[in-house]
């Protein structure tokens, strides 16, 4: 992608950086150091990238103070405290999100009693059930299904073919990506001799402000209580949140995470990829759980856990190290034991 462009001086002004080199260099796109051309802005986050920086053809580079040496001819360097944060601002300026224009496609079905805010955009073949409420400037993509009495806050974006079951409540500035399913009945059954009897789920599904739900992720409605995803929390693709789960604010749940019913997750928690959490647990504020971990017990606030079953991270590392030390000892014992003795 390319844009109308910014001069290196304009980039420096935008991010509050110190310009070194030619401020008239025009950049129109963003690229990695090794693939950037003269019309691209790039970044180097530490002095370990010094060699790549010297070899790069980028027109302008965002760098930390450690890489603020005199720029090479024809290239500008912009010194900033945090190149990553600066790059986010530059991308936003070069590629502003203009969004879909306001309007309702002729193929959209709108139920009785719907309330549509100003400037909403609704794409082809979307279906809005009776009593749906859309806040101002919502963007509803093609094929979205919003069940009866779903409420959506202002400036929320719902991607293609996402499904919101009846009664789902979505806050403002929420992003729901393609294929996500919100508010479906949870996986609850009463086993018996004649088979499994489904437990009715009459609770709600609530997404607070600035939540993000990744593609093909599912957040089940509660059985009798509500399932809640707190403000600012981000769910990656292919995440499953079970019934009655409550997730706090500003959490990050990576791809493939599964959280079983009625678990409570505090604020600022990170669950890395493919973490599995069993039901009715409490995970404290600021906890960190490493990828592929299986959580079977409560996690205290601020703790870092890993492994299967998950345990304190340092304890897991010590156990792994001990296991690797045992393997050579076993091999040596096997050499010392006669073959006939092992066969016996």
Sequence-ordered SSE layout with sheet pairings:
Layout: E1 6-7, H1 8-15, E2 18-20, E3 26-27, E4 29-30, E5 40-43, H2 50-55, E6 60-63, E7 76-79, H3 83-94, E8 103-104, E9 109-110, E10 115-116, E11 121-122, E12 127-128, E13 133-134, E14 139-140, E15 145-146, E16 151-152, E17 157-158, E18 163-164, E19 169-170, E20 175-176, E21 181-182, E22 189-192, E23 195-198, E24 205-207, E25 212-213, E26 218-219, E27 227-229, E28 234-235, E29 240-241, E30 246-247, E31 252-253, E32 258-259, E33 264-265, E34 270-271, E35 276-277, E36 282-283, E37 288-289, E38 294-295, E39 304-306, E40 311-312, H4 313-336, H5 339-343
Parallel strand pairs: 4-5, 5-6, 6-7, 8-11, 9-12, 10-13, 11-14, 12-15, 13-16, 14-17, 15-18, 16-19, 17-20, 18-21, 19-24, 20-25, 21-26, 24-27, 25-28, 26-29, 27-30, 28-31, 29-32, 30-33, 31-34, 32-35, 33-36, 34-37, 35-38, 37-39
Antiparallel strand pairs: 1-3, 2-7, 22-23, 39-40
């Amino acid at each position: 992608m390319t844009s109308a462009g910014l001069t290196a001086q304009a980039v420096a002004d935008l991010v509050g950086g110190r310009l070194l080199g030619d401020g008239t260099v025009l950049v129109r796109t963003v690229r990695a150091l090794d693939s950037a051309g003269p019309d691209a802005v790039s970044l180097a986050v530490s002095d370990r990238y010094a060699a790549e920086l010297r070899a790069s053809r980028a027109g302008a580079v965002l760098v930390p103070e450690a890489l603020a040496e005199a720029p090479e001819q024809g290239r500008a360097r912009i010194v900033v405290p945090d190149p990553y944060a600066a790059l986010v601002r530059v991308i936003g300026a070069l590629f502003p999100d203009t969004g879909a224009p306001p309007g309702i496609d002729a193929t959209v079905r709108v139920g009785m009693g719907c309330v549509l805010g100003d400037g909403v955009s609704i794409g082809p073949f979307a279906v809005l059930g009776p009593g749906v409420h859309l806040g101002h400037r919502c963007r509803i993509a093609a094929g979205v299904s919003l069940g009866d009495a779903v409420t959506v806050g202002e400036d929320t974006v719902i991607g293609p073919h996402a499904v919101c079951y009846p009664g789902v409540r979505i806050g403002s500035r929420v992003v729901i990506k393609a294929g996500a399913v919100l508010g479906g009945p949870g996986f609850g059954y009463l086993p018996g001799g004649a088979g499994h009897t489904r437990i009715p789920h009459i609770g709600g599904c609530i997404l607070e402000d600035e939540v993000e739900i990744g593609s093909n992720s599912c957040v089940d409605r509660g059985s009798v209580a509500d399932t809640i995803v707190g403000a600012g929390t981000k769910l990656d693709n292919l995440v499953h949140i079970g019934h009655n789960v409550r997730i706090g604010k500003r959490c990050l749940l990576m791809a493939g995470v599964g959280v079983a019913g009625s678990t409570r997750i505090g604020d600022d928690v990170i669950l890395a990829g493919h973490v599995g959490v069993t039901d009715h647990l409490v995970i404290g504020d600021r906890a960190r759980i490493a990828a592929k971990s299986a959580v079977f017990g409560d996690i205290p606030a601020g703790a870092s856990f890993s492994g299967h079953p998950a345990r304190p991270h340092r304890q897991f590392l010590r156990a792994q190290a001990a296991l690797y030390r045992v393997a050579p000892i076993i091999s040596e014992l096997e050499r010392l034991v006669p073959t006939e003795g092992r066969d016996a």
